[in-house]
Amino acid sequence: MKDTSEKHPQKKYDQPPFPEQQQEVPGTEKKLDPKADHGEDSYKGSGKLKGKKAVITGGDSGIGRAVAIAFAREGADVMISYLNEDEDADTTVRHIEEAGRKAVKIKGDISEEPHCWEIIDKAVSEFGRIDILVNNAAFQMAHSSLEELSSEEWDYTFRTNIYAMFYLCKKAIPLMAPGSAIINTTSVNAYNPNSSLIAYAATKGAIQNFTVSLGEMLADKGIRVNCVAPGPIWTPLIPSTLPEEKVKEFGKNTPMKRVGQPAELAAAYVLLACDDSSYMTGSTVQITGGRATI
């Protein structure tokens, strides 16, 4: 019988334990061990987003980079926003340009409303319009007790993860035509919250509800709003915000017995961005490695 073990989903990528590692927030791709897969060598486009103009927050690394690569290979011009990870952003820009598409980057803190306005203004200036808005950037930090969590960090988590989504959508929606799409990144934590990520999990629940409400609100305008709920995904956010012992075993508690790779999420964002999902709004695509979301 032919050996098909290489096709087994559990064995597609490295399984924990991983080398012990810690990074400074927000983390960088080059220090990840093992390296993450963003679809650099595997994603093949088929013109699903030909001529579209997309904005992706947190597009420098992780899920955002995988989505940027996929969108570009599907024919979209892409703007990525990022906090301060210049080297990672430059790498993503290179991948977009190698796909033959226009790449624009913008650096800054999306927790500040004026910067969110600047992102949308620059996208319109560079592209002429916005067809796809991906609200993907997020902040998290692990704590073992509520006493450890400062009011300032609580506020910053909400401002980055949910306030920014409100700012960006409010600015972008009047500029978006029927057929446009907004895609938000929620999390398995919206359904099965991790107590050590109490602020992050609360924002992800808010994102889930925001997506459903906004999808209903914008249906008559022809703008679809959906979200993706990732499980444990291997990105720089993990070793920069979780304790080393958690990083070492990250993803082991899923039925897949491993972390997900950013490349494994990209097709879901493409689906929600293109006309194939024309009857989807207020929906969530769950990519959790089998982790329960009920």
CATH level-3 fold name: Rossmann fold
Largest sheet descriptor: 7 strands, parallel
How many H/I helical runs? 8
What is the CATH C level class, in words? Answer: Alpha Beta
CATH architecture term? 3-Layer(aba) Sandwich
Q: State the order of secondary-structure elements, H for helix, E for strand.
A: EHEHEHEHEHEHHHE
Mean pLDDT across all residues, rounded? Answer: 95
Estimated structural class? alpha/beta
In terms of per-residue confidence, which ranges show pLDDT below 50 for 5 or more consecutive residues? none
Report the CATH superfamily.
NAD(P)-binding Rossmann-like Domain
Strand fraction equals 5-15%
Span of the ends, CA to CA? 39 Å
Q: How many domain units?
A: 1
Determine the fraction of residues in helical runs and give it as a percent range: 25-40%
Rounded Rg:
18 Å
Summarize the structure.
This protein is of the alpha/beta class and 294 residues long.
Structure description:
With 294 residues, the chain is α/β, with parallel strands linked by helices. The protein has one domain: Rossmann fold, CATH 3.40.50. 34% of the residues lie in helices and 12% in strands. It contains 8 helices and 7 strands; from the N terminus they run E-H-E-H-E-H-E-H-E-H-E-H-H-H-E. A 7-stranded parallel sheet has the order 3-2-1-4-5-6-7, with helices on both faces. Strand 4, helix 4 and strand 5 form a beta-alpha-beta unit. It starts with 52 loop residues before the first strand and ends in a 7-residue tail after the last strand.
